[in-house]
Design brief:
alpha+beta
């Protein structure tokens, strides 16, 4: 013990770290201490392995623009003709609150890449077939803000709507291999969270003559990715 104390005296920084760790340990053992400590520390960003995601059985949904004019990005000078809806179950297995600042999806098909930006958080609802779909979609989604996910709780369900930022046309048929990435608060690095694929079948009709059916969300099953 004397040797340990002597070492600590010669290394004040190490000594301070040891004292702080001991204090945190004592606080965590007090009644209500652990929740208070987690809220106070609010450790973020977390390691990517501590934040996990899965896609519920309903899979990916796509819709194609049937309007005369293309859709416009809400904050960038670009247009697009396809949107992607992705339900997610996010689970934080680490300590503290995970704060997700941005979400994107990178899709690859036949050697070409499309980057999708998560722009909105959508409500889960049944659409009224007697009312115009476009107004309903815009009314029942909000701009995506900071996503907070508490630690070791039940998976948090989110439904995110994405728009492509580098592909202005209608998304064609084929198989897409995807990487879901998140950017955590205080860290500029994108972290891979999930890999999956989906296929728009060769016999899928991108239009039905009226131009309105495919403006509604169309479901596509999710499969494994490379």
């Amino acid at each position: 013990m004397e040797r340990i104390l002597a070492q600590l005296k010669r290394h004040p920084i190490v000594s301070a770290i040891v004292v702080l760790a001991a204090l945190l340990l004592v606080l965590s053992q007090l009644p209500g201490g652990r929740p208070w400590l987690l809220r106070t520390l609010d450790l973020a960003p977390l390691a990517s392995s501590e934040l996990t995601a899965e896609i519920p059985p309903e899979g990916v949904m796509l819709r194609w623009n049937a309007l005369v004019n293309p859709w416009h990005h809400p904050s960038k000078d670009l247009t697009f003709q396809t949107e992607l809806k992705l339900p997610l179950l996010l689970h934080n297995e680490g300590v503290g609150t995970a704060k997700v600042e941005a979400v994107r999806l990178i899709s690859e098909r036949q050697g070409k890449q499309i980057v999708w930006e998560a722009l909105w958080q959508a409500e889960e609802r049944q659409w009224d077939p007697t009312s115009p779909i476009e107004a309903q979609i815009q009314q029942h989604r909000t701009p995506l803000g900071l996503i907070k996910i508490g630690s070791h709780g039940s998976p948090q369900r989110l439904v995110l709507d994405f728009a492509p930022i580098d592909y202005p046309g209608h998304l064609p048929r084929g198989t897409y291999h995807n990487r879901l990435q998140v950017k955590l608060a205080g860290n500029e690095k994108w972290r891979n969270l999930l890999r999956f694929s989906f296929t728009i079948p060769a016999d899928f009709a991108l239009e039905d003559g009226s131009g309105y059916r495919y403006q509604y969300w169309q479901p596509f099953a999710v499969g494994p990715s490379l």
